[in-house]
Design brief:
single chain; 236 residues; alpha/beta; 4-stranded parallel β-sheet; two-stranded antiparallel ribbon; 10 helices; 47% helix
């Protein structure tokens, strides 16, 4: 049996053991796979929960909502208010901890209202060695990481997603808009909206992977090397 299949079998066992799940769902490759694969096992005992906030691009939210409809799962949208948390908006290196703690607390409340046993997120095996304070926050609140626990890497998830027909299998990795602002620089709704609009414009040029880094009066644009010509043509 292929190694990926062994991991997938373990993943299915983990999901079945949970009984029911509320998944923190962003619409990305990892969380989309988690929702789809888990729903095939748990049926209507799984819900996808998406948080809307200034740090989550509206275009990404709309795609996540459309994808959830295609997956046929119950999709609950909540409002996140991390900008009201000084320890987040002041933008310290541990900002993700405070953001995720706020998010997971709200999902726990949704899970309780829907008689769901556990909440889970889409962290994969490679995330365990990264600077992931969100995982720490989740661990303190009992959040499960089924993909990580099963040993599934990003490449494994893309392979399995393609196999089961998910259109998110090749979706570029994404990060919240707040990650574009250097630590120590205040995070504001205005800055996040500026970044969102700029990235949306560049994506319309046909460039899927883009990051706009906000450096006060300077915007640093990051795109793949083979897309620089397209970028320069579109901005001339």
């Amino acid at each position: 049996m292929d190694t990926v299949d062994k991991k997938f079998r373990r993943f299915k066992e983990i999901i079945a053991e949970s009984g029911s799940l509320a998944v923190a769902y962003s619409g990305g490759a990892d969380s989309s796979f988690l929702v789809k694969a888990a729903s095939d096992i748990l049926g209507n005992k799984i819900i996808a929960v998406t948080a809307r906030s200034e740090s989550y691009p509206e275009a990404e939210f709309n795609k996540a909502r459309t994808r959830a409809e295609k997956l046929g799962v119950k999709h609950i949208v909540i409002e996140s208010s991390e900008l009201k948390i000084d320890k987040f908006s002041d933008n310290p290196p541990e900002r993700c901890y405070y953001c995720k703690r706020e998010l997971f607390k709200k999902i726990l409340a949704v899970a309780a209202d829907n008689n769901i046993n556990y909440i889970a997120n889409g962290a994969n095996y490679e995330d365990k060695d990264d600077f992931r304070l969100g995982i720490k926050a989740g661990g303190e609140l009992g959040v499960k990481h089924p993909l990580m626990e099963a040993g599934l890497t990003k490449a494994d998830i893309r392979k399995l997603s393609k196999r089961i027909g998910l259109d998110s299998w090749d979706k570029p990795a994404a990060a919240c808009l707040a990650s574009r602002i250097p630590y120590g620089e205040k995070i504001t709704a205005r800055k996040l909206k500026m970044i969102e609009r700029a990235e949306r414009y560049i994506k319309k040029l046909g460039i899927k992977q883009v990051r706009i880094r906000h450096h006060r009066d300077i915007a640093r644009i990051e795109v793949p090397r083979d897309k620089i010509t397209i970028l320069l043509s579109g901005m001339s």
